[in-house]
Structures are given as structure tokens and as C-alpha cells.
Specification:
By secondary structure, the chain is mainly alpha-helical. It folds into 4 domains: 91 residues, no CATH class; 129 residues, Orthogonal Bundle (Cytochrome Bc1 Complex, Chain D, domain 2); 92 residues, no CATH class; 30 residues, no CATH class. 67% of the residues lie in helices and 1% in strands. It is built from 18 helices and 2 strands. The protein has a two-stranded antiparallel ribbon with strand order 1-2. Strand 1 and strand 2 form a beta hairpin. Helix 3 packs antiparallel against helix 4, helix 14 packs antiparallel against helix 17 and helix 16 packs antiparallel against helix 17. The longest helix has 29 residues. Bound molecules: heme C. The site of heme C (HEC) has 22 residues, from helix 1, helix 6, helix 8 and helix 9.
Length: 369
């Protein structure tokens, strides 16, 4: 598929740029020329794709990227531009960037990796004569899981072409993406659990699949690097309401792509796996919000099964997602709150003691003449 190919080219482009250009100088002439051809190919592919509202503005940002590339601008800027263009292209041509099923475990991908990849990339991803190392964290942070998945798209694989010699289905490609993502963190300990609370969207789909660690603050980047190599461990960290929100986002993507029954299925899953486990708790904490969410769920279900305008469906889903965020906040008081309570108790006691002391001093003071 053409859109997948363009996306592929853009994500490798972003990852390769610092190897081609450093401090305003071309340090690898051959790679730089190859990158130039990649950008041209992306522009040609975009021309060949069907016209969409938003395509012209994407063309403009590709032209901007081309200018930055020609001017040998700093890597972080060029990478950000290339990745932003890739994300817009994926949205414009509705590429499904997260799996509908839970992510496979790296152990699911390992046998596939041994069969199809190890001869070039090495058993542990250390690289060899046939292919580069996949075990460098510095390199891996530039790619999302989806980028790895997309690199293996048989119809868009510009890296391997016929060399791969394997026709992989979607589930196998996700399993391989996870196996590749595990190499840099293979013998590392998991990040601390409170990071999952601080960055809930990164332990749920689609965040886990579509985020490039390089775009995050350092603690989040390190954590994501680990989490995506161990999706089976991450599932226990995922907050049900965040899962519900993620599934609704996937439902919207499916709906936009014309897959109404897939969208309906995901919305039902979001309700069952995300909301139901916490419904009673929320009804106790905030009955009005719980009732509103139930209404909104009903409205979404009706919109998905009725003959309504697509804007109505999408708005219903987005309203529901907003309410789910509120619900999560209602169920989990922000972490500073207990500290605030402790401090107010201490301050109150101090004030009371001081008052008492003053009062006693006043009483002891001999009456003035
Ligand atoms: C015949 C050898 C060969 C086989 C088999 C092979 N690769 Fe590769 N792979 C390469 C080469 C060579 C490159 C670098 C291509 C380039 O940069 O133009 C590469 C690049 C990659 C990259 C991008 C790495 C980066 O940092 O840019 C990933 C990811 C990757 N391969 C994964 C896989 C997986 C997964 C498999 C198995 C399904 C596989 N490869 C099979 C030779 C191979």
C-alpha cells in the first residue's frame, strides 16, 4: 500500500538523519543522497494517493521538510518535522496504527524472528554481516512499535524488499515488532510502577503502539522503551478507564475507515472491559457522572447502529471519552491531595498550640496597674 510505504520512508528518514548530518555538515555523503531520494519518493507517493482535504497542507509541510534537509538543519528539528508528517499522513489515509487485538508477547515473536530474521540481524539482535543491529536503545527510541510493524509490511517494505522472503500476516508483524522492541531492554528491570500512573496513555493502546520514545521526557521514554518490549506485563498496569478511552479511539478510527461493525464491537469492548469493572465504584463516588456516562454510552450505541451522520457518531464518542477522563479523576484523587491533608492538619495543630500558649501567657500575666 502506497500510504504505508510513504510512512515507512518517513520513519526511516527521521531515524537515519543524525547519521547523515551532524552540526550542519554532511558526514555521510552516500546516506545523504539516499535520504534525498527517499524524500522525493515520499512526495511522489503523496501525489499518487487520492486527493483528501488536508493533502495540500501535508504537501506544504513536506516541502518545508525538504528545505530543512537541504539546509542541513539540526537533527531534532528535522526528525520532529518528518515524524509529524508521518503522523499526519497516517491520519489522512486512515492507516490502522494500533492492533485491534491486544499486543502479542515478545515470546510469540521469537520463533518467527529466529526463522525469518536472525540470519541477518543475529539471534539477539546484535546485527551481523547481513543486517544492522536492532539492539541499540539510542536507535530504537526513534521508532514506534507501529513503525516496526509498518517496516515489515510486505507491500511497503522498502528496506528489505524481496530479501525478507517471508509473507507475514498482521498478527505476526506485531509479534515481530514487539520482539524487535525487546532487544534493547532484554535484560533490564521494569520501570517503577508509579510511572504507569503518571503516564497512563503510554501503557494502553494506541499510545503504547504509536508513540516514539524519543518524543517524550526522559523518564517516560525509558519506561516506554521497556513497556513495549513486555506488553503482557503492561496489561496489569493499564487503568480500565484508560483502556476504555483507547478502545473508543480505535472504534473511531475503524468508523472513519467505514468499518461500522468493527467500531461497534470495540465500543462494546470498551464498555465491558473498561467501564463495567468500575461502574459500581463510580456510582458511589459520583452518581450524576455515572448516570451521564451510561446515557452517553447508550447514545453512542444508537448512533452506531442508526442511520446518522458520521459527525454525530464521532461527537458522541468524543463526549464519552471526555466523561471517562473526568471519571478517572473522580475515582483517583490527585496524588498531592493526601499530602495537602497532612500539611493542613499539621498547620492547624501548630496554630491551635500557639493560640493556647498565648492564652495561658495572657492569663498568667499579672494585672497591669
Ligand atoms: C537478508 C537479510 C535480512 C533479513 C532476513 C532481515 N533483515 Fe532487517 N534489515 C536488513 C538490512 C540490510 C537492513 C538495513 C536496510 C537499510 O538501512 O537500507 C535491515 C533493516 C531492518 C530494520 C530497521 C533497523 C533500523 O534501525 O533502521 C528493522 C527493524 C529490521 N530490519 C527488522 C527485521 C525483521 C523483524 C526481520 C525478520 C522478519 C528482518 N529484518 C529480516 C537485512 C535483513
Amino acid at each position: 500500500m502506497l500510504a504505508a510505504e510513504a510512512l515507512n520512508l518517513l520513519s526511516s528518514f527521521a531515524a537515519d538523519y543524525p547519521d547523515a548530518v551532524q552540526e550542519g555538515q554532511v558526514i555521510d555523503e552516500r546516506l545523504y543522497r539516499q535520504q534525498d531520494r527517499q524524500l522525493e519518493r515520499v512526495q511522489a507517493v503523496l501525489q499518487a494517493l487520492p486527493e483528501r482535504p488536508g493533502r495540500t497542507s501535508l504537501e506544504r509541510s513536506l516541502n518545508g521538510l525538504k528545505r530543512d534537509f537541504a539546509a542541513l538543519r539540526p537533527a531534532d528539528l528535522v526528525q520532529r518535522r518528518a515524524n509529524a508528517a508521518a503522523d499526519r499522513l497516517a491520519a489522512l489515509y486512515q492507516l490502522q496504527r494500533a492492533p485491534i487485538h491486544p499486543l502479542p508477547a515478545a515470546t510469540d515473536g521469537e520463533p518467527l524472528y529466529r526463522r525469518h530474521c536472525a540470519r541477518c540481524h543475529g539471534l539477539r539482535g546484535a546485527g551481523g554481516d547481513g543486517g544492522p543491529s536492532l539492539a541499540s536503545a539510542e536507535r530504537s527510541v526513534q521508532f514506534s512499535l507501529f513503525d516496526y510493524y509498518n517496516l515489515l509490511d510486505p507491500s511497503a517494505d522498502t528496506l528489505h524488499g524481496a530479501r525478507l522472503g517471508a509473507d507475514l500476516n498482521s498478527w505476526q508483524r506485531w509479534a515481530l515488532a514487539v520482539a524487535v522492541a525487546r532487544f534493547p531492554v532484554a535484560d533490564q528491570l521494569p520501570p517503577s510502577v508509579d510511572l504507569a500512573q503518571r503516564y497512563p496513555a503510554l501503557v494502553a493502546l494506541p499510545g503504547l503502539a504509536v508513540t516514539r520514545p524519543a518524543t517524550l521526557p526522559e523518564d517516560a521514554a525509558t519506561a516506554l522503551l521497556w513497556w513495549r518490549g513486555y506488553p503482557e506485563a503492561v496489561r496489569t498496569l493499564e487503568h480500565p478507564l484508560v483502556r476504555a478511552g483507547g478502545l473508543l479511539q480505535l472504534a473511531e478510527t475503524a468508523y472513519r475507515a467505514g468499518d461500522t461493525s468493527g467500531a461497534y464491537h470495540k465500543a462494546v469492548l470498551a464498555y465491558r472491559q473498561g467501564f463495567l469493572p468500575l461502574r459500581a465504584q463510580l456510582e458511589k463516588r459520583d452518581p450524576a457522572l455515572a448516570a451521564r456516562i451510561l446515557d452517553q454510552w447508550q447514545a453512542l450505541r444508537e448512533a452506531l447502529t442508526g442511520e446518522v451522520n458520521s459527525a454525530v457518531v464521532l461527537a458522541a464518542s468524543q463526549r464519552l471519552r471526555e466523561s471517562l477522563v473526568l471519571a478517572r479523576n473522580r475515582l483517583e484523587p490527585p496524588p498531592e491531595q493526601p499530602a495537602v491533608i497532612v500539611w493542613s492538619a499539621i498547620l492547624f495543630t501548630l496554630a491551635a498550640v500557639t493560640g493556647l500558649l498565648w492564652w495561658r501567657r495572657l492569663r498568667r500575666r499579672p494585672p497591669s496597674q
